[in-house]
């Protein structure tokens, strides 16, 4: 289940990031073992501001039955002129490989096309991030190529990244 974050999600968000720093920290610099309540509160505030301004739509991924925090996914980088955005996702270590990221990608791409009226959703994945590459492929995203020095890596250097796109059916 996807839903916007609530302030009460803070403890589970922090616990999930700390749990997952080994699996996602290689790709996301903020995913550190010392991720703090302050870090999490800053993220929740950032997400709320994105929703208010219409510049980003970040969601928590929650277990439909238990309500447990599974991960996160969002639409961000909405272009002010051209109708496209970026779609990103991560899943906590203990829940990886169970289809949560793929379900989030499918739901958020529908939201982008049906509600936001976008024409294109981009998924940018660092070279070597096999788990995220598999999610993009599993969701039917079109691989457009490997872009040189497309993203800033966790070490501060420019990394190559795969560009995938989804368009309305």
TrEMBL record:
Q: Where is the N-acetyltransferase domain?
A: 1-168
Q: Which Gene3D superfamilies match?
A: 3.40.630.30
- What are this entry's molecular-function GO terms? protein N-terminal-serine acetyltransferase activity; protein-N-terminal-alanine acetyltransferase activity
Q: Which residues form a coiled coil?
A: none
Q: Does the keyword Transferase apply?
A: yes
Q: Which PROSITE patterns match?
A: GNAT (PS51186)
Keywords, ordered alphabetically: Transferase
InterPro entries annotated for this entry? Acyl_CoA_acyltransferase, GNAT_dom, Ribosomal_N-acetyltransferase
Is Secreted included in the keywords of this UniProt record? no
Specify the domain of life of the species encoding this protein. Bacteria
Q: Which Pfam families match?
A: Acetyltransf_3
Give the UniProt entry's GO cellular component terms: cytoplasm
Tell me what this protein is called.
GNAT family N-acetyltransferase
Tell me the organism.
Answer: Roseateles chitinivorans
């Amino acid at each position: 289940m996807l839903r916007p974050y609530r302030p009460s999600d803070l403890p589970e968000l922090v616990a999930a990031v700390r749990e997952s720093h080994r699996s996602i920290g290689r790709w996301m610099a903020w995913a550190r073992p010392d991720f703090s309540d302050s870090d999490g509160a800053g993220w929740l505030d950032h997400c709320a501001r994105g929703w208010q301004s219409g510049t980003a739509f970040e969601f928590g991924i929650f277990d439909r039955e238990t309500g447990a925090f599974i991960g996160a996914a969002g639409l961000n980088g909405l272009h002010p002129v051209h109708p496209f955005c970026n779609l990103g996702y991560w899943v906590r270590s203990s829940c990886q490989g169970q289809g949560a990221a793929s379900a989030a990608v499918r739901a958020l791409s529908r939201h982008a096309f049906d509600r936001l009226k976008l024409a294109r959703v981009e998924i940018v994945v660092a070279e070597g991030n096999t788990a995220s590459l598999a999610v993009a492929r599993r969701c039917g995203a079109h691989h457009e190529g490997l872009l040189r020095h497309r993203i800033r890596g966790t070490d501060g250097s420019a990394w190559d990244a795969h560009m995938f796109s989804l368009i309305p059916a």
